């Protein structure tokens, strides 16, 4: 099913026209919902600190998690105390809860668990983003909140909107769900503060370029260094081919690949052939769910987002402006 959806969304498969009427219904419902918030019929709730929202207009992975980590580190370097909120996709929890180092991905979601493991940033997850943000503010000294996803969650007031676009897949066939991958039309990019293209080589007038720079593969167990060059690649992310291509660019001979659905709940059965087979390299997001049952020959590939000094300067200027506006509102 997932393969068929990808063909419809990204390879211009004719079946998109069968779903086209449903896309019009989706567009109508979305437009009505936006207008309800725009005209105050549904209230938008503002928080006492600036909210920097990192989202996308497409379904599936685009590189938001490395972007969030980049922003956490950038803001810290310039004296801010950021916190992060997320829905915690894949979590079994319904109510807001704090994410701690070592939190289970099944409890808080794989991406939140990975973000906190990497940065130790104050973070909370929950289906109700307002309640989640309030829990975070009550428990931590946070002066700016990064919302991981939630671009279409209009109840949450936001001061800065940043959208990440997959540079390879772009906007697919340009159609709304379910005929295409779009949650909102391409017009939405004109209304946000920053558009970041994951995989672009250089900034343009409309978009900032983001590159994912891979670090040395890290073992899931012990301190064993990966010396083999022929490997099996495993990925349960939105765009696994990007990960496989990265490994090849790093010089690995990717002899086997295995794809799982994004946010796949891994189990030991998924690695039943690991002990006797090729060394396995997976993404960092996958690794956060696999440490307790994988064999010794498993590694993950950390990646860091790299953006231009121009982007960082403009982002920080926008944050300073948002902080000033919040101070005015308080007074």
From TrEMBL:
Q: Which InterPro entries match?
A: LpxK (IPR003758), P-loop_NTPase (IPR027417)
Positions that bind ATP: 58-65
UniProt keywords, alphabetically:
ATP-binding, Kinase, Lipid A biosynthesis, Lipid biosynthesis, Lipid metabolism, Membrane, Nucleotide-binding, Transferase, Transmembrane, Transmembrane helix
Task: Provide the GO MF annotations for this entry.
Answer: lipid-A 4'-kinase activity
Coiled-coil residue spans:
none
Q: Which reaction does it catalyse?
A: a lipid A disaccharide + ATP = a lipid IVA + ADP + H(+)
What residue ranges are annotated as transmembrane? 14-32
Pathway involvement of the protein, from the record: Glycolipid biosynthesis; lipid IV(A) biosynthesis; lipid IV(A) from (3R)-3-hydroxytetradecanoyl-[acyl-carrier-protein] and UDP-N-acetyl-alpha-D-glucosamine: step 6/6
Q: Supply the EC number(s).
A: 2.7.1.130
Specify whether Chaperone is a keyword of the entry. no
The answer to whether keyword Nucleotide-binding applies is: yes
Q: Which family would the database say this protein is a member of?
A: Belongs to the LpxK family.
NCBIfam families reported in the protein's UniProt record:
lpxK
PANTHER family annotated for this entry?
A: TETRAACYLDISACCHARIDE 4'-KINASE, TETRAACYLDISACCHARIDE 4'-KINASE, MITOCHONDRIAL-RELATED
Q: What does this protein do?
A: Transfers the gamma-phosphate of ATP to the 4'-position of a tetraacyldisaccharide 1-phosphate intermediate (termed DS-1-P) to form tetraacyldisaccharide 1,4'-bis-phosphate (lipid IVA).
Protein name per UniProt: Tetraacyldisaccharide 4'-kinase
- Give the originating organism: Shewanella electrica
State the gene name recorded for this protein: lpxK
